[in-house]
Write a structure and sequence with these properties.
- This protein has one domain.
- Helix content is 62%, strand content 9%.
- The protein contains twelve helices and five strands.
- Helix 5 packs across helix 12.
- The longest helix has 34 residues.
């Protein structure tokens, strides 16, 4: 069914997204396009079946800049929620555009896709590692700390295996190419280079703030956090992971944020997590780099001056 395939694409696109971004820009790959976040707005660029580039822009959420949401740790979870919310919206738009009007996905199919993706994440990346570590503990007599290490290692192996497996799918490989285009464009922009496909192609497709690296850090932080709480039955373990997830995400965000600003300890500490990006990114074409640069231009341009390369169409949501 179409929603099942789209659920896999949704999970892959979220894994291919950038972690909560270091201003002024961050991004995420979508279907045949790229979503970029500037200081004030989001910019989405998608390659249309006819060859043009469709643009959409909308303002960033003001609530992230106010009250409790500005404080360390809390801001990490809030930013991740916003990235996922906007990322799903952009993914739905990109799917409608790339499929064409005659194959437009209905709201019900979208809801089923999101539901299937969330159930997949909960079952494969939360429940399965937890019960597998329980089995190993009973068999080998692990301590509480060793059991949590086993759970984290199993979760990491499952995650890496999942990403490697879906990367063999042609549609997902295209998303990973746009992921590479997003990274190359951001690297070129942050280096102060003139943004042309030729210039961007010379920059690496690896970036320290990538969502793939962020998820690896989340796994490592979860080992520490879950080891610090008491042991209990299956209900306690599942419940504690749900309740403490915002803390794990918030701490991971702060680590990535600090590491991305450091060219010494940060650069070295994040290196192992960067290796996974060689799976979740592919070398993009010039056309894909053009789309990524169009998205970045839309995210950074003044609201009354949205332009793209190649005479792309544009639209705004206010």
């Amino acid at each position: 069914m179409i929603f099942a395939a789209r659920a896999v694409r949704l999970m892959a696109s979220l894994f291919a997204g950038a972690a909560p971004e270091k201003l002024p820009v961050g991004g995420q790959a979508v279907i045949e396009g790229v979503l970029m976040k500037g200081p004030e707005r989001w910019g989405l660029a998608v390659r249309e079946p006819g060859g043009g580039i469709m643009l959409k822009t909308w303002p960033g959420s003001e609530w992230l800049k106010k009250g409790l949401w500005k404080f360390p740790v809390v801001r990490g979870f809030a930013t991740m929620v916003e990235m996922m919310r906007v990322g799903m919206r952009a993914l739905s738009m990109s799917a409608d555009i790339s499929l064409g009007e005659e194959e437009k996905i209905t709201p019900l199919e979208t809801a089923l896709s999101v539901g299937a993706a969330l159930l997949g994440v909960a079952g494969i990346f939360v429940a399965l590692p937890m019960f597998a570590s329980e089995f190993l503990t009973e068999r080998f007599g692990f301590t509480h700390f060793e059991k949590n290490i086993a759970e984290g290692v199993i979760r990491g192996i499952i995650f890496i295996g999942y990403v490697a497996l879906i990367s063999l799918w042609k549609d997902i490989a295209r998303v990973f190419e746009y992921h590479g285009a997003e990274h190359k464009t951001i690297n070129a922009y942050e280096s102060g280079a003139e943004l042309t496909p030729e210039n961007a192609a010379r920059y690496p497709r690896i970036h320290r703030r990538c969502g793939t690296s962020f998820l690896i850090i989340v796994i490592l932080v979860s080992i520490i956090v879950f080891s610090a709480i008491g042991d209990g039955g299956a209900l306690w373990r599942v419940g504690s992971r749900i309740v403490l997830l915002p803390l794990v995400i918030g701490v991971s965000y702060e680590f990535i944020r600090a590491a991305s600003n450091s060219d010494t300890w940060g650069a070295w500490s994040i290196k192992p997590a960067l290796l996974l990006q060689y799976i979740t990114t592919r070398e993009p074409s010039s056309d894909q780099l053009e789309v990524a640069m169009a998205a970045l231009g839309a995210a950074l341009a003044p609201s009354n001056d949205i332009t793209t390369a190649g005479g792309a169409e544009n639209g705004t949501d206010r």
